[in-house]
Amino acid sequence: xxxxxxxxxxxxxxxxxTWMKQVVDRGLHEKVAILAGITxxxxxxxxxYMKSKVPGMDIPDEVIDRLAGVDxxxxxxxxxxxxxxxxxxxxxxxxxxGFHIMAIEWEEKVPELVKGAGLYPRPxx
Length: 125
What we know:
The chain is an alpha/beta fold.
């Protein structure tokens, strides 16, 4: 058996929430901790590349459109903001026990993500 599952990068939050409902309905969340995979987008180019070139990535058009709607020099900060919003939303998703933050070649942003999502100091359970 396993103690925890780390998902791949989640960009389609609604689809993940539907999957988590199925997990909870089956009681699987009581058998294994599920860590939601979070990857902040650095740019519109990254989002487009992941959507078209990375197998299994589900990047909704809303993600592309939101990044396209800000100046190029502000896209990285918008990507951080989007990841923080996603973690805040998924903290409320029953069965999600934590996050697997994958700040690809952007590790220095992890503290900002954690603090922005209200995960530091560590929440008491």
